[in-house]
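User: ok so my PI wants both of these folded by tonight, can you help

Assistant: No problem, let's get them done. Here's the first:
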Amino acid sequence: MTLSGAATHAAVVVGAGRMGQAHATAWESLGVPVRWAVSPRRRPALDA
């Protein structure tokens, strides 16, 4: 990987991290715990 390629990769990773953080915050503002949004398999049954 070239130096510029590494810099681009780092920028993409940082950008994705920020987007993920904003997405999680949006879910929290809707009252949805982030862990439910991230892993639906752990979501308790709504009719339980």
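One down. Here's the second:
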Amino acid sequence: MTARLEINGMERSYPERTANLEELLLYVIQNDQAPSPLMVEIKVNGKHYDEDFRHQARLLSLNDLDLVEVITHDRESLVEDFLSQLPGHIEGIRSGIEQASECLRRPGSRLKGYDLVARSFEVLHSLAQHLYQVKAALAGQEEFPGGLWPWEDLVVTLDKVLAVQEAGCAEAIADVLEEEMLPQLARWHRHAATGFCARA
């Protein structure tokens, strides 16, 4: 028995010749009624699915799966919804980084500080996935609304934090967070709150 397909909570049929997950996802995109659809979430047998390498979905036979759930969104609505929520996401990350920095400077709270850094970075990673989708939806524009470009500066700072963390110096991590990451997040928040940011 081949896998059942649900799109945005509704069970849908698909051609019997569809053999694997990649073919199924291509069918979904090609037949979605929304203009310029994007798949924002894929679940396989109830678990979130991401490819670890290109065309990995070809290896998943639909005969071996029970349920494939796909959430789609049209590009314009995805961009609008994401950008309206972006300032709140950035502020949450900024608050977590600020608390982490304070904890890292107190010997008795450093484990909590490391945990806050890790959780904040996980949220940043998740936010980055959405950013890439938004940038793809806006491809070809010279300027991007919502302050997307400060993310590229943050990547450099993230690498610095990870390098310092390997050296095991909590105070040095706090320095990078306070001197570089917090100002970048504050700047990004201002850009996102105004709803527009030039690439420069």
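The first strand starts at residue 4 and ends at 7. Residues 75 and 81 are 10 Å apart (CA to CA). Good luck tonight!
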